[in-house]
Write a structure and sequence with these properties.
mainly alpha; 377 residues; 15 helices
């Protein structure tokens, strides 16, 4: 008997992580005045910490599924694992990446055109390309760096699970945490002006994959039995950790330059703690408390993440004049950016729904042939 594993509350967490990232990226094209709206500004900027939430959640689920597969079938099936990941990640990733490159002929800076960047993102090393050359001029492509980091994790995790088993996974994860904070320490010793590659460095971000894997191994399938009030307190504590990391210790995506090594290490520790707390605030929540719409949107969060930067780019950059005209027509000129945000979010959801229904689902159906522990993507 193969037991199915699916936690709908983790789909809600995916949605929360996406919304955090969405509002951070919206700031890139429609900035908030930090003097007039300081809290909106700060809360929007810490939304970048939604990316580590995705990383931790992904590691937790992959470890949980691999562990259950090993328990129920006797081993980790490497070929099946890689096939599942290819069918889930590659079709939409490459369709979006090369689609944006083709669109560049009609919409400047929609995609990348240089051979080096093409090769890097095709081989899932786009994050290292950004580490070397900085953020791309093609804004819609920038978020894809995180897919490269995830694929690097997927390349090794089944091998460790199969041959190292539980002890091997724990040892590797502890090692990754040490490496991550050693890298953070070295960055602090050699500060640079402007862009820092710290945020897109795999070794720094692997701490969140390590934490997700360790949570899966330590919980052993158990779920936190917490009431809603305590979960709300944990949720607030998670957001507070992000604010402390950003406001007190200067950890952010573009220029993470804390004043000293201790501040850098402490700041990143707060990011890690906030990510874990946000995960625990949702894990084990009863399905009766979860809005079905939120669960569904979390299920299609991969498409939401892939498309949102392009839609933001089109609304706030390419269609900026039309957005202004629409705002004037509706007598909402003061709320133009708010109107643009609503339009962007609605269009992103629409495109993601269509993508999931007509493009991704056939690959997901095929993926089931290589699945030993049923779940939902």
């Amino acid at each position: 008997m193969i037991h199915r594993y699916y936690r709908p509350e983790l789909d809600v967490l995916r949605l929360i992580a996406f919304l955090l990232v969405f509002f951070t990226h919206r700031m890139d094209l429609a900035p908030i005045d930090s003097h007039i709206h300081p809290w909106r500004y700060n809360l929007s900027l810490i939304g970048v910490f939604g990316v580590p939430v995705f990383f931790l959640l992904s590691a937790f689920l992959i470890t949980e599924l691999l562990t259950r597969e090993q328990q129920q079938t006797g081993k980790v099936h490497l070929k099946a694992f890689y096939t599942r990941r290819v069918l889930r990640i590659w079709p939409l990733y490459f369709a979006a990446f090369f689609g944006l490159a083709a669109l560049t002929r009609f919409v400047p800076h929609a995609g990348i055109t240089t051979p080096g960047s093409w090769l890097a993102f095709t081989l899932f090393s786009g994050n290292w390309y950004i580490c070397k050359y900085g953020w791309l001029n093609a804004y819609p492509v920038n978020p894809l760096w995180s897919i490269s980091v995830e694929e690097q994790f997927y390349l090794t995790i089944p091998l460790i699970a199969r041959y190292g088993r539980r002890r091997g996974l724990i040892a590797i994860c502890i090692g990754l945490l040490v490496v991550a904070y050693l890298a953070i320490f070295l960055y602090a010793q050699h500060p640079s002006a402007g862009f820092s590659s710290q945020w897109t460095n795999s070794f720094v971000q692997f701490q969140f994959f390590a934490a997700g894997t360790l949570l899966s191994l330590l919980l052993r399938g158990r779920l936190p039995e917490l009431n809603l009030i305590f979960r709300a307190i944990i949720f607030v504590a998670a957001i507070s950790c992000g604010l402390i990391a950003f406001l007190k210790f200067g950890v952010e995506a573009d220029n993470p330059h804390p004043a000293n090594a201790l501040g850098s290490l402490t700041g990143w520790a707060f990011v890690l703690a906030g990510t874990i707390l946000l995960f625990l605030a949702l894990l084990g929540t009863s399905a009766k408390y979860l809005p079905k719409a939120a669960v569904y949107l979390g299920r299609i969060s991969y498409g939401l993440y892939i498309f949102h930067a392009f839609v933001l780019f089109m609304v706030f950059h390419v269609w900026k004049v039309r957005l202004t005209e629409l705002s004037l027509t509706l007598h909402l000129s003061y709320w133009r950016d708010a109107l643009g945000t609503v339009i962007t979010l609605a269009l992103t959801i629409l495109v993601a729904v269509l993508s999931y229904r007509f493009f991704e689902k056939p690959f997901l159906q095929l993926k089931k042939r290589f699945t030993f522990v049923p779940s939902r993507d």
